[in-house]
Amino acid sequence: MPVNIPDKLPAIEQLKRENIFVMDSLQASMQDIRPLKIAILNLMPLKITTETDLIRLLSNSPLQIEIDFIKIKGHTSKNTPIEHMIAFYKNFDKIKDQKYDGMIITGAPVEQFEYEDVSYWPEITKIFDWARTHVTSTFYICWAAQAGLYHFYDIPKYQLDQKKFGVFEHTLNDPLNSIFRGFDDVFYAPHSRHTEIKREDIEKCPDLTILSESEEAGVYMVMARNGREFFITGHSEYAPNTLDQEYKRDIAKGASIEVPQNYYRDNDPKKAPLVRWRGHANLLFSNWLNYFVYQATPFNAQDIH
User: Fold this and answer.
1) Residue 300 reports pLDDT greater than 80
2) pLDDT band at 16; cut points 50, 70, 90
3) Three-state secondary structure along the chain?
4) Residue 286 belongs to domain with CATH number
5) Membrane-spanning regions, if any (predicted)?
């Protein structure tokens, strides 16, 4: 997919080395088609890494995409240069009058706080509400998935005794759903979280459908509003080395953390990761873009409601 991203975004050079087609604004303007407009609210601490991971997956289709990176106005990133945020990110107030074909809201390192204690909770819930009338389909990841389910459907989260950390096998509850087109009967996805949502709480809400889950990792994918909302509890977008970096970072801090499960070859941190989720991740994002964004969005984005 030709992905139209801001000139000089650090992800460009990395993705070109991977033979992924990205284009700048000038090239995109020469194509006589309406691109899909995708907003990404990036709440992850290592924003440049997350930008690269998501663009890598959004590029796996013939559709042209135009991306706006959004940030929380009342929150300053501690791990990303302020110059990067100024150059490539927009405050929500700057885009609130626009309509988007799709939106991705990432995880955030705040899951052990009560939702209402998160400093930007009022602003992010305002964005959640806005997305329902300004976006065709919204893709919530990890903490954002838990937060969205809580905000809209009163689904609580629960503290885990031990961090759910590793790569886990998942199954399909509705194999004929378009989001699973091309999936095998089982697939793998990374998880990295201290909290969980429970099947029994979701089953009490008739507006929610559990599409996929894992015996080890629990509920993975929940759909609402016929695919206008997807809530994904794992991190399918993670690059091969992300769990390794998280593990070594926590070890260096002296944190008590187990080796990520089902991740390193022979479960040995001295060996390379065994990557088993990239095929699933590419299908997940391309199916979402095709069936729930491109085929569902009106030709004129301003007609989204």
Assistant:
1) no
2) low
3) CCEECCCCCCHHHHHHHCCCCEECHHHHHCCCCCCEEEEEECCCCCHHHHHHHHHHHHCCCCCCEEEEEEECCCCCCCCCCHHHHHHHEEEHHHHCCCCEEEEEECCCCCCCCCHHHCCCHHHHHHHHHHHHHHEEEEEEECHHHHHHHHHHHCCCCEEEEEEEEEEEEEEECCCCCHHHCCCCCEEEEEEEEEEECCHHHHHCCCCEEEEEEECCCEEEEEEEHHHCEEEECCCCCCCCCHHHHHHHHHHHCCCCCCCCECCEHHHCCCCCECCCCHHHHHHHHHHHHHHHHHCCCCCCHHHCC
4) 3.40.50.880
5) none
Q: What is the pLDDT of residues 209-223, one digit of tens each?
A: 999 999 999 999 999
Share above pLDDT 90 across residues of the chain, in percent, rounded to a whole number: 74
249 labeled binding residue: yes
- What pTM, to 2 d.p., does this model score? 0.89
Provide the domain count of the chain.
Answer: 1
Residue 34 marked as a ligand binder: no
Active-site residues: which are they?
Answer: 142, 235, 237
59 in a known ligand binding site? no
pLDDT at 31: 44
